[in-house]
Batch of 2 targets.
Target 1
Amino acid sequence: MSLISSGESCPKVPKVTTATLKQRKDQQEPITCLTAYDYASARLLDEAAIDIVLVGDSLAMTMLGHDNTLTLTVDEMLHHTRAVKRGVKQALLIADMPYGSYHVSAEEAVRNAARFIKEAGAEAVKIEGGEKRADLIHRIIDAEIPVAGHIGLTPQSVHRMGGYKVQGKSLAAIEQLMRDAVALDRAGVACLYLEGIPREVAAMITSEVATPTIGIGAGPECDGQVLVLHDILNLTFGPPAKFVRRYQDAAALIRQAAESFRSDVTSRRYPSDEESYHLAGETRMALETLLERKRAFGR
Ligand code: KIV
């Protein structure tokens, strides 16, 4: 079997790969990324031609109702990544490695990263942290696993940061962020997520590194933008962060649909005759005869 595509079954929208991301940066074409945590949303994002579908560990909060991302396990992430994989055809599928899955040893990190590829069909894994993760990221890439970096406001460091705060506000912090970005770029990351940093700093990093940057709360000069699906749909039950743009109000839509359903059922407007299955002619007549007899003879 040849592994080189004949081109005959090429889809209309070409498959997004890690190479595509680099081309996009070089051609200055913005990259789009949204999070997805299940089959249906993944499929819809893919059909909307979103470039990267990210199974973010934000699912701990958006899907599972936790206060932060720290409790999430590898098995939980794999479960969601498998579901997302079934919905994605064209987009690049990146999965977050959860807290604790790459912090103990390089061997364990590579083993866990490989599980995302082998057991869930991810095409890259994302790891939070800068300079200090460069060697580890290099090891994982060495195992043929593309890695996305993530620096700035890294939610898995919430306790060290003392909350979800914008990073890179002092000159020293900016210098560290730049060192982080350069180290990850040299380690060979497929792209670099920049979260919660001033626009000017993200712009500087973007022009300094060869790898595409994907911003969230990092201003418009990044090579791409990512948002959390639940944020853009108003499914987060709280005021949005400054950088969030709400494109739809799914909360209102779901509430409205649920209330209409309740009202229809309690007032017996649902289901209607058209929404019911019917017996076919002969069986229906036989049943009617049976019921008539029952009525007449009381049995
Ligand atoms: O977990 C997540 O959703 C993320 C994005 C916000 C980048 O890491």
Note: The first helix runs from residue 18 to 26.
Target 2
Amino acid sequence: MKYRVFAANWKMNIGPLEAREYLRSFFSAGQLPRGCGVWFFPPAVSVEAVARGVAGHDNIAVGVQDIYWEPKGAFTGAISGAIASQAGARMTLVGHSERRHVFGETDEQTGKKVAAALAADLSPLLCVGETLAQREAGETIAVISRQLEAALAGRAAGQSRVTVAYEPVWAIGTGRNATPQDAADVHKEIRAWLAKHAPGIVRILYGGSVNLKNVAQLLAEPELDGVLVGGASLDPHGWAELVRTGAA
Ligand code: PGA
């Protein structure tokens, strides 16, 4: 049975008090299926509550949604990998499309964040993906290759503790998901790029409007090693059901 990852990106939702309540409901839905990992990416202030709440569950891990690349200092509002790690994070998202498009994060900055995450012993979940205009112009693979190259440039050679998430921007929060075939086609290209330029990085998740209805069909595609889910991870019962459905 193939190991699959179910990553929940809560975005700017679920504070520390709500997180405790969420986990109570999530666990009341019963045991997680075998052969899967569940990763939670709460807002930074909720990381500690989630880390405490999932302690002892070997198949559940917690990460932050973003870090700054400097290790410490006068950077008001930012958090470093080391600070996130102290709060209980074991991983971090890097280069999510909302960071790129809402906050103007550049390819070069994602590279600094990947390197900083690894230096702080956090596993990066690196998000890449094209906009609708780029897809329609036939630039999908060129855009993703450029994003991968910049994001992985600063990492020590051979450092492969990175997971990639393919998240087409046009599919995020829009209700419009890539078909399993569309996703698999891009995953194959990403896999080929990684084999050539970053061997050892092999896990690729799909994200963008994944929900209870489409998760089984998407994960039936062997190219997908898991899913990164925003909206459909916010309800604890719905999320538990999505994990069970996808892992079946
Ligand atoms: P969505 O978000 O599932 O709400 O489309 C996915 C993501 O942004 O990671």
Note: The two ends are 10 Å apart (CA to CA).
